[in-house]
Amino acid sequence: MDREWAELSPGEKREERFRRWLSPPGFKFAGPGAEKGYKERATRFMRALKLQEPDRVPCILPAGMFPAGYAGTNLQTVMYDYDELKRAWLKFLNDFDMDTYMGPNLVPPGRALEILDYKLYKWPGHGLSSRVSSYQAVESEWMMAGEYDELIRDPSDFWLRTYLPRIFGALEPFRRIPPFTNIEEIAIMSFVPFGAPDVQASLEALAEAGRESVRWMAVVGEVIVTSLVAGYPGLMGGLSKAPFDTVGDTLRGTQGIMMDMFQRPDKLREALERIVPLTIRSAIASAAATGSPCIFMPLHKGADGFMSDKQFRTFYWPTLKKVVMGLADDGILPILFAEGGYNTRLDVIKELPRGAAAWYFDQTDMARAKQVLGSTACLVGNVPTSLLMTGQPSEVKERCRRLIETCGPGGGYILAGGANIDEGNPDNLRAMMEAAREYGVYK
Amino acid sequence: MSGDFANLLADLKEDEVIKLTKQRLDSGEDPMKILEDSRKGMELVGKRFADGEYFLPELVFSGELLKQVTEIVKPHITETTSDAKRRGKVVLGTVAGDIHDIGLNIVDFMLDVNGFQVYNLGVDVPAARFVAKVKETGAPIVGLSGFLTPAFDAMKETVEALDKAGLRGKVKIMIGGGQMDDEVRKYARADAYGKDAMAAVTLAKKWTGAS
Prior knowledge:
By secondary structure, chain A is of the alpha/beta class. Chain A contains 19 helices and nine strands.
């Protein structure tokens, strides 16, 4: 099987991934209606993503953490109470018309994070007020300026013995274990470090977090299977990032990486290159686990205003492009989510080959995007988040109509929000589907 | 020489700036003069940022250079001189429930180099702290920063808290950041939405009659 896979061309691999997604092997739908609905919906997305005209414009509801508030609970509760998590996400599935369904995969198991004393994020009730409807990353120098060589030499070892001990308080003792590559020949001293009481406590914490995550996963899996059985395909087969964001968001921090662009540009570029194959490997594994051909890539620090055109071309784009092409070569279709604006980047990003990726825009001018990218990439977006959260359903519907008119012609467009909404008027989400049905039909 | 120093700083020439700082101190020059030139250099950085020549990396790096210069100069300052004349006071912060500060710090930087006295309260700032700071400083301008959607309600609540404290008539409130726009401005009942740090400066100048 693997040998056969390796022999397929990138185009054949993509066809195979879409084929499996359209007809999940060994899967039993609730009935013929559900099966037909699933195929229709999945085909609608597939055609749009391949730059063809589907039966009508598909729609992604930007629901994010919305199901929690909609069901009368909140993010803090569903991060800890998996029954409530299931109730809220199934209620959303039952109450809304939709083309694709996003399971509760992005609601992390709060207790597992607590067991490991996770410091990289704050979440409601844990660093943020309990009524906040999102979790947020803590920017800091989790990797020091002088540690590039260690990262480049052996990223896994750097992760295990330097980075993880910093972001997980419970794994601090991992600083004192030796590199695993030191274990060779007849193991004599190899296990001694694992006998230390503090290292044992770390291993116990990991095991406990693992048990907790398995409980969580059972519930998440149940919800997702329920949605598939009912005929709603999941679109995103996993998450991935631009190497620049991996270093800038969670290793060096914005401040750190921007200093490095001046003080150690060569080391930074070397590290970005080093991260490329790791990112590709991780995304391919996610896609294999979920069976969806698409990988969602939220992009952060290359947005308009964050850096100059030259800096974007020098530091951000080359390794992002390598990741995109690495995934495309394995038949995966990355959906690049450009948070903020990407108006000044359109002329750089248009160099991707036709169909290599889809662009999901937040605040970018869609008319120009259609003009510049329309013949090479499916466009996704961008009903303003503020309008979805504070506007009237009629205003939302009108905005969707205009977007469909701008981006729909010729196919290759998916109606979606700018970013996810976590609360707001449920009728605004319904207005999006109404607009897709009323204005989005291809004749 | 002072013009050179400001230009070297604005051109982000790290080694030259540090070398020249030490040279000037060694030659017995008034350390306050060096700080004054640094300020001119930072003003140039602000101008280049406003003109679209510089971006966030240059702001970050120039801030680091300024810190280095200040650290070298500080031990040589014997008397504290009062802050240069300031255009007006601005209370700034990221609203409750949001811990993002990239945009916040850009606005702080740009207001500062344009002569405003900025009171930056940091991130996840409860409405009551904005109220207390406005009372304490008498600042006529409040800037609310936010990145994520929970900031919509937090901004609304902050504006309401200023109103309840009887301060609404005395302050002008601007909002900005991430998912903010004029829709959110209406929702929060703020006075203005600024799409970037230059807009914040323009608004602050307008409101203080300093344009």
